[in-house]
Structures are given as C-alpha cells and as structure tokens.
Amino acid sequence: MADIVLSARHLTKRFGGLIAVSDVSIDVHRDEIHAVIGPNGAGKSTLVNLLSGEITPGDGSVHLAGEDMTARSPDQRARAGLGRSYQKTTIFPDVSVFANARLAAQARSPKALRFFGDASRDPVINAHATAALSEAGIAAHADTPARHLSHGGQRQLEIAMVLATAPSILLLDEPLAGMGPAEAQDMIALVSRLRNGRGILLVEHDMDAVFALADRLTVMADGHVIATGTPAQVRADPAVRVAYLGEDCL
C-alpha cells in the first residue's frame, strides 16, 4: 500500500452530553479512495470537520504526511495539502468559472498576501487554475459565469477550486448530492480519476457509488467505527448489516 497522506488517531468530540465522535482512528493512503459511510447521525460530518480543522477534537490527533495538524487552523491545513469540498456548493456565482479557479489557486500561492500586483496576470496562478479546470472536466466553460453552470457543473467547479490549491488529500463530502443519474455517473468517473497521486476520503450516501469507487471503507454508527476493510469485507460484516437494518441497504 502507498504512503499515508492523512492519519487520525483516537479522535473524540463531545457536544455537551452528546459524544458525536468516539475514539475514531482512520488512515488514508495515496492513490486510494477511502469512503466513510453510516446511517444518519453516525458522526460522519463531525469526523470530516475534525479532519479539516473546522472543529477541534476533545481528544486525539490528526496528521498530514506525518506532520501534526491537530492544533492547526483550516487554512493552515489547506496550505499543508488538505483540500475539502462541502455538502452545499461553495462557489462565487457572479464571476467566471476561470476566475473561481484562479481565486482558489491564488489563496494557495506563496504570494497570496501581497498587496501590489495584478494576480490575474500571474502566469503560475493562471496555470494552476487552467490545469484544475481541465482535470475537473470543465475547461470548456472557463469564460462562463459560474451561476450558469448546471448543478453538476457547479459541483465540478467546486472540485476544480479544491484542485487549484494543489492538495495531496481530498475530503469530498457528498459530491453526488442532488445529482441526476447522468451527472452522478460523470462525478463518479471524475472522483475515480482524482485518486491518482492523491488520497481521497469520501463521505457519500449513494451506496452504489461508494462500492463502485472505494478501495477501503470505514463504517460508523453512533459516533463509533464498527467496521473497516475492503468493500467485500464490509458487505459481509454482521455489525454493518445490523447498523443498516438489513443487507438490502448495502
């Protein structure tokens, strides 16, 4: 197995008397899609927020490529190579598709905090933006206002914005949400391609997509990990069948 790009150990998060995530450990390797699944309320979103730095764990640690990120902010984690997409599309709708990607690339650039100079003319930033749009499959729409893209196109743009930051690990939170069958198939193909040279942690409710994409799965229920393994191992796990109230859900 390739090297570990993201590692979490014994993550725990409490909200008052509720333990949303309890003693969760997970590894994501380069060139791997590692899916996290579980019923509603299992703790998946809280886990992603802990990994991305949106919330701070009560216990446990998060490492990126061996570097301790537990106390680092989301922007610091992004600069270290962690890219995240959200359940709801987060784009700038009133500017072009290319401008969205360029802004994301600029945020990752060592020159991001400069006060003088036209970032739109920076050849390095523009090259990163162009490459990201191409990899996400929407380079043909570079001059289109982002609001005019279809829902699936906007999700592709959001991923392109993440790619423009040159991540080594992608956290994809329900990338197929709200898509029809054709758009979902396009997204599945895109996510499959994105594993090359990166690690991907995927949270998704579409089980057909999960089992088509995932190299490994972690199953959560009530804040705990109840199973981790290959798709075949997870399908056969009795605890997983109980959590999903029957094998028909898998």
Automatic annotation (TrEMBL):
UniProt entry keywords in alphabetical sequence: ATP-binding, Nucleotide-binding, Transport
Domain ABC transporter: 6-247
Cellular component GO terms held in the UniProt record: plasma membrane
Gene Ontology molecular function: ATP binding; ATP hydrolysis activity
CDD domains documented for this protein: ABC_Mj1267_LivG_branched
Keyword Repeat belongs to the record: no
Record bears the keyword Chloroplast: no
InterPro entries: AAA+_ATPase, ABC_AA/LPS_Transport, ABC_transporter-like_ATP-bd, BCA_ABC_TP_C, P-loop_NTPase
PANTHER family assigned to the protein according to its UniProt record, in alphabetical order: CONSERVED COMPONENT OF ABC TRANSPORTER FOR NATURAL AMINO ACIDS (PTHR45772:SF9), CONSERVED COMPONENT OF ABC TRANSPORTER FOR NATURAL AMINO ACIDS-RELATED (PTHR45772)
Stated name of the protein: ABC transporter ATP-binding protein
